[in-house]
Amino acid sequence: MKRLLLLLLFMMLLPFAEKAYAKNTVIQMNEEATVFDNRSGSLVQVGTLSAGQTFEVTKDYGANWWQIRWGGYYGYIEKRYTTVVPATTYKNTVPTAAKITDYIVATKVAPIYDNTGSKLVQFATLSEGVRFPIYSGMGNWYGIAVNGRLGFVHSNFVVKENGQNSTNTDTNTTKPVEKPTTTPPSKQNGYIEALENVILYDFRREKEMAIATLMKGQQLEVVDSMDPMYVQVRWGKSYVYAEKSKVKFLNTPSYKNVGKDNAMKNEYFIPTSANSEIYDNKTKAMQPFAKLDTNRRYPILRKEGAWYVTVLGGREGYIHSSKVAIDRGVPVMMYHHVLKEHELGRFKNLSTTVTDVQFTKEMQYLKSKNYETITVDELWHFMRNEITLPAYSIVLTFDDGLLSTREYAYPVLKNNGFKATQFLITSRNESAKDGQIFNYNDLQPLSRQDITNMQDVFAFESHTYNLHVLEGNRGKMLLTPYREVVQDLQRSIAIIPSAKAFAYPFGQYNANIINAVKEVGFTMAFSTKHGYNNPYDDVYQIKRLSSNQQTTNAQFQKMVLPYAQ
To answer: What is the DSSP code (8-state) at residue 433?
Structure first.
């Protein structure tokens, strides 16, 4: 299914920006570069930009990517092929907003030319199969608007396709005859009415999330309708999308329960009943206009008596408090050592060790309840309120990088299709021998080979290079001069260059430690403080939960539940 291009993560190809450029930044191509579209959830080539050509970007999209306009949606260019320059060099500009009626579809790789000079100059290409709106026609040439620049494609490379939004002309008058109700309204911020029950999607993650269902005949306010496939409506401080083919456009709504989506508090509820409809309270009998998903968290506008009020598409919706629970945030589980019962020995009753049977039961429970094990990168974006996550989400972490995780945790996680993160004390992993035999009487570190072999399940982050030492009751990291702490963390990153997350040894840290963690480039840090994590919480003091040998199954289930009972 085609999907609207949004601010997605590019499957972890998008690291965090070190420098942000203005919207009107101009780039010059150092060599030919691919234009990617990721509305399908993966990167798809839709064209190229030619070497030496200049383009204005619409957004600085992190350390690795530029965003440009591309045929009614957005395309993405890798920064490594570009240089920022003072101004564009072309003259053939075209308005970004234009009435589009028809399209071309490339039947082979189609060159796009600039015709303003004494000869045609190629500045881009369309990939085979790519559909692109027509801006103008000139004999055998089609004019198209490429990121605000007028280019021409010869008919030998494309076929014409009539658009759904074109208008017919009455033979007795020059006044256009309106097409069916799928035509967007003249008012930019118009309204949609569902022709059937319509799913509203959030596209900010790699895979789309169904957020709610707009019921047949119900209406919402439109934010944008320029995309050929989807119409955008507001949801809290973000957006959701409805398929255009399943709605009609209106200039005036029939509902009166108007609300301000962006006035939401940083508080959320989770529907706990299959009867999860939200109601319009302005009608004589409260009428449901949308149904919520029971594995989602919804922003709260306010509470009125026994009712919670949320807003969807500029419309207030009421849901009874008996059908929801207050979201307490995303749980992050912390594990260390896993052993069989008869292997515990000196680790018996230590809080940092669980048995393989207990760990297996805990993972089986998560699987049975359809928990999604999210990455630390997704947690970072969630805490910055850049994405939403399923209500039943959890982060699994392991501190110290111990060989017992290879023996007992890895197979269980893999069998359940789970992802997890290991925080490594990298000096120990650096010196560990490959092919080592597991000895349950010792705390053995993972070797480089172990780390490589388990990357299908584990991501590996930092737990210092060699500062995981307890001196009395204080960790060595707190007792080490600031500059030496920075140097240690830099050595850690040199061994695992992909590391963006850090775990404080023994959960001990202060303001200086946080500053050192930030200075070397870590974007988030995990503590041992008990609790859950919400949007706008401090990403350098992420809270965690832990299970030990005394934790019962009932206690674990209550602990990971996304809401308090």
So the answer is: P
Q: For the chain, give the number of residues.
A: 565
CB atoms within 10 A of CB 70: 24
Query: What is the predicted pLDDT for the residue at 286?
Result: 87
Residue 383 DSSP symbol: H
- For 113, the 3-state DSSP assignment is strand
3-state secondary structure 147-210: CCEEEEEEHHHEEEEECCCCCEECCCCCCEECCCCCCCCCCCCCEEEECCCEEEEECCCCCCEE
- In angstroms, the CA 482 to CA 515 distance is 9
pLDDT digits (tens, 9 = 90+) for 300-321: 999 999 999 999 999 999 999 9
Coil, helix or strand for 372? strand
Q: Residues 315-349: pLDDT tens digits?
A: 999 999 999 999 999 999 999 999 999 999 999 99
Tokens 């895979």 found at: 207
* Euclidean distance between CA atoms 257 and 310, whole angstroms: 11
Give the span between the Cα atoms of 371 and 7, in whole angstroms: 24
Task: List, in sequence order, every residue forming a beta bridge with 459; answer none if it has no partner.
Answer: 421
d(Cα 292, Cα 179) in Å, to the nearest integer? 33
Q: Whole-angstrom Cα distance, residue 222 to residue 398?
A: 45
pLDDT tens-digit profile of 244-269? 999 999 989 999 999 988 788 889 99
Angle between helices 482-495 and 511-519 (to 10 degrees): 40
Sign of CA dihedral 143, 146, 149, 151: negative
Measured distance CA(239)–CA(235) in Å, rounded? 5
> At 382, which helix (H) or strand (E)?
helix 376-383
pTM of the model: 0.69
Q: CA-CA-CA-CA torsion for 66, 69, 74, 76, nearest 10 degrees?
A: -30
Phi-psi map region of 177: left, alpha, beta (phi>0 left; psi -120 to 50 alpha): beta
Judge contact between 330 and 323, C-beta under 8 A.
no
Distance between CA atoms of residues 67 and 148, nearest Å: 13
Q: Tell me which residue has tokens 């973000």.
A: 238
